[in-house]
Amino acid sequence: MATVLGEKFDRSFQGTPPGMSRIDNELWQRYRPVISDSCIAIYFNVYLGKGVDAGGDFNEKWKEYWIRRTQLRADAIIVYSDRVVVVEFRDRATASVVGRVLAYRTLLLSANPFGRNVESEVVTNFYSEIVELICKQNQIEYKVL
Questions:
Q1: More reliable by pLDDT, 65 or 13
Q2: Are 5 and 77 spatial neighbours (Cβ–Cβ below 8 Å)?
Q3: pLDDT level of residue 134 (50, 70, 90 thresholds)
Q4: What would you report as the CA-atom Rg of the chain, rounded to the nearest whole angstrom?
Q5: Which three-class secondary structure state does DSSP give residue 57?
Q6: Distance between CA 92 and CA 106 in Å, rounded?
Q7: What is the DSSP letter of 32?
Q8: What is d(CA 43, CA 10) in angstroms, rounded to the nearest whole number?
Q9: Within a 10 A sphere around the Cβ of 111, how many other Cβ atoms?
Q10: Which helix (H) or strand (E) holds 75?
């Protein structure tokens, strides 16, 4: 099992995204209006990477459960005609968010189900100079809402 996109949404979606926490949903609701009209699709709660197989002694249901538990999970992937943007919503983002976003980008690039350039973005509610600097150095868009 590798990238699991899940349900496809469009730009007009106004509900609570699957798998999103209350605070991340608040950030999503503030972020949603800035999504370009050229958005083709949005996927939430996207599982990335292979995960860890629980081994031969478990039934398939439990193996799949464990693989999902050990995969990384991106908050949102927004698809445009020319690129894909992995978006991490993070309450009071600290420097650790950069490692997660880099991992998401790496895993999505290795599978690349969209065949497009992959970009990354951190969306937070608290400004941090060091997070902004690290994001800039790693070509990650940094938005404070």
A1: 13
A2: yes
A3: very high
A4: 15
A5: coil
A6: 24
A7: G
A8: 9
A9: 14
A10: strand 72-80
Place of tokens 């509900």: 15
Residue 7 CB neighbours (<10 A): 11
Question: Cα(58)–Cα(65) distance, rounded to whole angstroms?
Answer: 10
The β-bridge partners of 77 are: 43, 86
pLDDT one-digit tens code per residue, 89-121: 999 999 999 999 999 999 999 888 999 999 999
pLDDT at 49: 83
- Residues contacting 80, CB < 8 A, separation 6+: 36, 38, 39, 40, 116
* pLDDT attached to residue 112: 86
Asked whether the beta carbons of 35 and 44 are under 8 A apart, the reply is no
**Strand (E) or helix (H) holding 61:** helix 60-70
Q: What φ, ψ does residue 76 adopt, rounded to 5°?
A: -150, 145
- Asked if 4 contacts 50 with a C-beta cutoff of 8 angstroms, the reply is no
What's residue 53's pLDDT? 74
Calpha distance 63→91 (Å, rounded): 32
List the one residue out of 91, 61, 62, 63 whose CA is nearest residue 75.
Answer: 91
pTM of the model: 0.89
